[in-house]
Amino acid sequence: NIPLYKFKTIEYKLLSEDYTDIVFQSIAAVKFFQHLHIFNKKNIYSMGKATYQSLLEKGFESSNPEIPGSAGLIKVIENRIGSGKFLIVKGRDGLNEIHDYLKSKKVEVDQVCCYERIKFDNYDNLKEYYFLADAIIFPSTLAVKIFFKEIYSNDIKAQFLGISNRIVESINNLGYEGELIDYFSNNLEEQVKKLI
User: Fold this and answer.
1) Do 13 and 80 have their domain in common?
2) d(CA 59, CA 91)
3) What is the tens place of the pLDDT at every residue in 128-143?
4) Total tally of structural domains belonging to the chain
5) Among 4, 53, 118, 193, which lies 20 to 30 A Cα-Cα from 92?
6) Among 29, 42, 52, 55, which residue's Cα sits nearest to residue 85?
7) Domain that holds residue 58
8) Is residue 114 located within the same domain as residue 170?
9) Percent of the chain surpassing pLDDT 90
10) Same structural domain for residues 43 and 90?
11) Shared-domain flag, residues 32 and 81
């Protein structure tokens, strides 16, 4: 599980501060969002357990789905929409599923992109780690794309693991076999051992 890209902050303009609900789509969204002062008396949502933990470390509770991802989070918020005003905090080229869902329900929603993911210039110095691995854990679909374009060779015999159904699907769509793991469980090592 070696990073295949870096993060860079993006300047953004917050159109309002009177949101009732704030959705964080990633750990990086929590890290790069600069308006923590608007959190008081807001409903805060996180896409998954890692994002939940990042918010908790900053002192904020959030609601998150049992199964991480957009579909799970939509189930969490669908009964809480009411007359709220939502803000979605994400990265450039991040998912739009929650935004599109809220728009389809005629909910007032804005989104800000506060970071971007940038590919490394070269991956040669990382290839050896992957050639030696028994399992490779992918944290995003971007990591899948980069790995199979920049690093993969037939010499790699590792099991490919994704931390969400969407990531596993992106592995499978490239013609490889991906397995879903609960990356945030207490027995991650045991899960991986069973799969390899």
Assistant:
1) yes
2) 22
3) 989 989 999 998 999 9
4) 2
5) 53
6) 42
7) 5-118
8) no
9) 70
10) yes
11) yes
Which amino acid type is present at position 152? Y
- Domain boundary (100, 118, 136) is at 118
pTM of the model: 0.86
Q: What is the pLDDT of residues 103-161, one digit of tens each?
A: 999 999 999 999 999 999 999 999 998 998 999 999 899 999 999 999 999 989 999 99
The CATH number of the domain where 103 resides is what?
Answer: 3.40.50.10090
**What HEC string does the chain produce?**
CCCCEEEEECCCCCCCCCCCEEEECCHHHHHHCCCHHHHCCCEEEECCHHHHHHHHHCCCCCECCCCCCHHHHHHHHCCCCCCCEEEEEEECCCCCHHHHHHHHCCCEEEEEEEEEEEECCCCHHHHHHHHHCCEEEECCHHHHHHHHHHHCCCCCCCEEEECCHHHHHHHHHCCCCEEECCCCCCCHHHHHHHHC
